[in-house]
Amino acid sequence: xxxxxxxxxxxxxxxxxxxxxxxxxxxxxxxxxxxxxxxxxxxxxxxxxxxxxxxxxxxxxxxxxxxxxxxxxxxxxxxxxxxxxxxxxxxxxxxxxxxxxxxxxxxxxxxxxxxxxxxxxxxxxxxxxxxxxxxxxxxxxxxxxxxxxxxxxxxxxxxxxxxxxxxxxxxxxxxxxxxxxxxxxxxxxxxxxxxxxxxxxxxxxxxxxxxxxxxxxxxxxxxxxxxxxxxxxxxxxxxxxxxxxxxxxxxxxxxxxxxxxxxxxxxxxxxxxxxxxxxxxxxxxxxxxxxxxxxxxxxxxxxxxxxxxxxxxxxxxxxxxxxxxxxxxxxxxxxxxxxxxxxxxxxxxxxxxxxxxxxxxxxxxxxxxxxxxxxxxxxxxxxxxxxxxxxxxxxxxxxxxxxxxxxxxxxxxxxxxxxxxxxxxxxxxxxxxxxxxxxxxxxxxxxxxxxxxxxxxxxxxxxxxxxxxxxxxxxxxxxxxxxxxxxxxx
Length: 490
Prior knowledge:
With 490 residues, this protein is an alpha/beta fold. It folds into 3 domains: 139 residues, tt1808, chain A (Alpha-Beta Complex); 154 residues; 176 residues, no CATH class. The strands form 2 sheets. The protein has a 6-stranded mixed sheet, sandwiched between helices. Strands 9-8-7-10-11-12 form a 6-stranded mixed sheet, with helices on one face. β5 and β6 form a beta hairpin. It is globular. It starts with a helix and ends with a strand.
């Protein structure tokens, strides 16, 4: 479980004070980095290794000071040494690394100064040790926090879909098809997302695959089957002799891992595909966009034009803003400064229910849910003016995924929509953690969006919810407001 930002900041102050006079790389570098990772509640021993041997670009043998595969490479020097040379030395190691080991970040330091390179965004930040606290948010990715701005054209979404598409093709070619393949891929999607967003420990899923399965992939399916069973079993009900690495995974529930699936069969190439997928930063993926892309990769003909297979957020906003969002924000503006009215509005948005009768992969539901959570945060921010804070954010977050329902004729997008709602819920929970300084996660998954696999023309929509005050349903062509006794155009 990630530390709260308040605790991280407290540890950062202590770390800066502890190391303000150190200068010897050889004597104390390992202790320095162990304690650096401890600032974020991460055991360096579990995620990163010292002195990793690697062939440099010129063919000579080198040793990386510290490597967290796929995340960050650290090159450390004694006090006063050139950080430019340290960065060049770090880059010289890249040709000797495997694809899934290549880091997004390079961090160089001489004890008294830090320089962080974000290779993906092309940004660099440099600051002295004494200012570590002021720059602590640069390292949110270590603890599992990172502010994200999702773009529809973000290549990370397409890259993720393509990686999953290749794994899908390989499994299908092996004879693993149909419903089992669809559920299997959705489970893998959840695991990939979970380890990059603090549902699991950082790299927990990747490390388990990398360190506990054979390189030829022959035992990978067996390990995944056991892992899925563990994720579906409460801690108290697990075997006492269960391997401690498996037992460290949380109880997820939510019916995602409930069904017993036939065993798949992997080879070395397929195992590499999965590890390659693990190396992507899944916290950057937008559930609203990825779901449709993920569905598109199932069809090789559609895969060539992945960007065309989702309704843009701009168009979704054109529907949901006049339908309900603008009105709710107008109420919010009127309620500002009045705690009673703010609390009434909070109760109101927690009582609303939303239905999309042709939900596909859940694009509309996901965006609508995210917007309702953002409105809730705006209300709580207003209530918190004065800086008193909240004793326990778990008690004040009331908007939840079970307020949202959908109907989808095809099973695969329906399953994607269901898990995507959990993913966007977790992303919003991370924003709550960032906003109020308390780690907030909903595990085990006790509530879920009700996504029904069926024909919307033959189902009684009202039976999806028995406690409906009113429902809002949207699809890409028509908009309806559904009330208990009638369905009318607005």
